[in-house]
Amino acid sequence: MIPVIIGYAILENYTRNLPLSPKAKSAFYKKHQNNIEILILGASQNRDAINPEFLSQKALNLAYPDQDYYVSSKLLEQIGPTLTSLKTVIVPISYGHFETAPNQKETWKNSMYRHYFGATISEKFTYFKDNFLYISFPNYYSTKINSHRNGKNTVDCNEYGYNRDVSTSAFYKLKYDSLSIAKSPVPITPLQENPAFIPENIERLEAILNYCSQQNYKVILLETPTTVLFKQQRIPEVLHRKDSILSLIKSKYTIQHIDLDTNNDYSIKDRRDNNHLSTQGAKKFTKRLNKIIE
Question: What does pTM read for this prediction?
Fold first, then answer.
């Protein structure tokens, strides 16, 4: 077993030293913990659309791909109290949030957040999976290790942990050719109606809103830009239920709803794909958002 243990120790050490976005965000968090005024939660849409570099107030962007209201609520409850200057919390309310399957309560992300931010988002503790990065998701980190060793690293973070690299994005790979993009499939979530997921997702969103109310944090429910192609793929019933939930939330809580999905002046190069903004688009989007916040 000794060679096996040594092998995993080497992999774990290599993983912890990879130039990953969460590592950069952790460094920013530890350095500016007492000055951060904005906390950004949610999934990849918020991660890609909001570059804190262009906000007047210091902001920590903890949005991550496929991240639901459950994980966001856990992060807010544990990291929020450590941000002594926190004033504003940005939460997504996209087309598919309420009818997408909630995150598993035992997720590999737990080890990531435990290591970088000291936060626990799993309801059940597993020693090896939760205390070590590599073991928590070997396939994911093996890919990152191989890319780094082969000089194909796709991470170019600024001090806020925003990844400026777009080389893996769908539109970049299609060379921003509008005809090729129009012919390509449009990934959209959910692919079908899932009203059974709504109660749990609403419960977790309300947990976020209630916590913010108790702490006197201002809340922004944010909708980020999507393409016309994306909008055409939406299921009308899902969209209707989402809008109905939004109306109910707005009548029940003191929040600000900012819908920036109605802007059609983003170019192809402003986007990573039909549902995510590129570095160029994020600069434009974040500056707009900053004016509203100010």
Answer: 0.94
